[in-house]
């Protein structure tokens, strides 16, 4: 769950449908499903992320490695 800065929700909504490249990236590091949506909680907008995979510890390790490689 990521808080969205005030006024940025409309901008973010434009990019939500275009996640094909991200889906491929997540698939390569061990995630079988990745979904995200905007949800209002207590009057504030949040970007909610849902991920599914066989081993989330391996996914987190792979993600850290990609971040460290600036990939």
Strand order of the largest sheet: 1-3-2
Strand content: 25-35%
Number of strands: 3
| Sheet with the most strands, sense and barrel status | 3 strands, antiparallel
- Based on secondary structure, the structural category is alpha+beta
- CA-CA gap between termini: 22 Å
- Counted by DSSP, the helix tally is 3
How would you sum up the global shape?
elongated
| CA-based gyration radius | 14 Å
| Overall average residue pLDDT | 84
Return residue spans where pLDDT drops below 50 for at least 5 consecutive residues: none
**DSSP helix fraction:** 40-55%
Query: How do the SSEs run, as a string of H and E?
Result: EHHEEH
Model description:
The structure is a single chain. The chain is an alpha+beta fold and 71 residues long. Helix content is 41%, strand content 28%. It is built from three helices and three strands, in the order E-H-H-E-E-H. It has helices at residues 9-15, 20-28, 56-68, and strands at residues 2-3, 33-41, 44-52. The protein has a three-stranded antiparallel beta sheet with strand order 1-3-2. Strand 2 and strand 3 form a beta hairpin. It is elongated and about 35 Å long. The two termini are 22 Å apart. 3% of the residues are buried. The mean pLDDT is 84.
């Amino acid at each position: 769950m990521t808080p969205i800065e005030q006024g940025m929700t409309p901008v973010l909504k434009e990019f939500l449908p275009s996640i094909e490249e991200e889906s491929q990236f997540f698939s390569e590091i061990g995630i079988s499903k990745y979904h995200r949506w905007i949800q209002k909680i207590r009057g504030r907008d949040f970007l909610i992320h849902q991920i599914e995979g066989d081993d989330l510890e391996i996914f987190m390790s792979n993600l850290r490695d990609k971040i460290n490689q600036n990939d």
